Amino acid sequence: MEGILPLYKSRGMTSHDCVFKLRKILRMKRIGHTGTLDPDVDGVLPICIGRATKVAEYLTEAGKSYEGEVTIGFSTTTEDSSGEVVEQRVVREEFTRSEILEVLKKLSGEITQTPPMFSAVKVNGKRLYEYARKGIEVERPSRKVTIYELELLDDRNSFSGETIKFRFRVSCSKGTYVRTLAVMIGEELGYPAHMSDLTRIQSAGYRIEDCLTLEEVEEKMGNGSLPAVLKPMESALNHLPKYEISDKLGEKVKNGAVLPIPTELENNTGPIVVKNMDGEALAIYQHHPQKAGLMKPTKVLKI
Fold it and tell me: Which residues are catalytic?
């Protein structure tokens, strides 16, 4: 059994918890998730099964979409609702819809974020959350991320109250902390803020409506219908450029052959999927580091 399982991760579970349970349900060890989803966040968690674990890293690189809620008025240690309150200020002013929309527009495109202390980013060989749990504050490396779309999911024309809450939808690049984005929205409005709710609605090409719960996976495993609902390994590579080759050349690719870079992909600096005429992904190639005009396989998918 192999392929991609779009799993609905419920709240209260870690991504590792999901993999642990699936290994028991499917009675196989070769299972991997495609990037951590916080315990307080539910939604889409693509799971790679069998040979599809080879492409997990490329799924992790793909963009994601979320629907969430920001609360203006107080911030927390974790930047979400699970943390302790750090700063609290009663909201004394009323914000118009246009003011909120202007902030969301300002935070769209390429922005710079500093990861929260309660995150899995490594500094000096340790995860930031390891420092945070000991009460140690360390300097955190900022990173550039891309917010492709940031939409207000609230039809009010004015926002007021001692705390203000509104929902949003965001599509973003790998490495984006939506918790931090919520804090940044508050900063732009002049108040402490945190992310009070979050659901991942899409990861790569997998949508929340395509997902199965762990209970549904167990049921389908029991009646033998699970293999039919797994997505092909190739679906994890839809966001990458493709290069189609003949079956004859495909045999050489399986043995790790170096290939000329196709003219249409000369300016592509990232991974390239080499596929056969049936659409099967044979290997992932990258520009050769020493030989100009050539590309070499970084991962052979079919042998």
Answer: 38
